[in-house]
Amino acid sequence: MIENLNLKKTPKQVLLEARVGLWSATGLTIASSMFLIALVVTFVIFPLNFNWQGIEVYAQSFTQHYWQILMFVIPCFLISPLYLILTVAIHRFAPEEKHILSLLGIVFAVAYVAQITANYYLQMSAISQSISTGLLDGTTLFAFGNLNSIFWSMEILGYTWLSISMIFTGRLFSDGKMETTIKWIFIVNGILGVVAIIQAVTHLDFGFPFSLVFFAFTFPVATAMMALLFHRVPKKDNKLTPQ
């Protein structure tokens, strides 16, 4: 159970912390839902060609497909800081004996935010500017369309930090059906994310990226449930327990 055990907190403090949790969880639900839509559009409805044919060919079609890249990049850019804020809010309601878990969740969330935001901002700034001006030297290593690029290596590593954070944070939830659902969505996503980096390092082909699809569909469900729990905090004597 995630509950507020700090008896020194005033009702205003509790309310403020609950609001931060509510709005960060709500923002995460919206951003991760946008990510799901982008994933479907980018890989199903209007699938991008990831058969790398060189930076010159990629640059020729970059302007035409840039909106699809932004559909993918912008939600992911927003998810990372919102997730960090949410972990901080969760920590404020975690029982003292579980603070080590909530703090570890924050530590890995910080690493995730630092890496992922830089990676996505690079796509929206330096890479897009270089391609639009015809300065293609070195862009092959960072191009979104090149699955063997540094961008995708950084992407996988960044989401590994998120996965580890989710494993620690998920263990804070235990009381009731809603919290149990959140717990296992976080833990299963975390395990699948760790498996993904093992796959990348060992060059093993596990076929369809199930971990990505599972995350896209389940993460907004978990964050929506968290928003509901934070919404109920002032009504439940400072407890994040569903009624």
UniProtKB/TrEMBL annotation:
Protein name, per record = DUF4386 domain-containing protein
Q: Which residues cross the membrane?
A: 20-46, 66-88, 100-122, 150-172, 184-202, 208-230
Q: Does the keyword Nucleus apply?
A: no
Q: Which UniProt keywords apply?
A: Membrane, Transmembrane, Transmembrane helix
Superkingdom per UniProt: Archaea
| Organism encoding this protein | Methanobacterium formicicum (strain DSM 3637 / PP1)
Q: Does the keyword Nucleus apply?
A: no
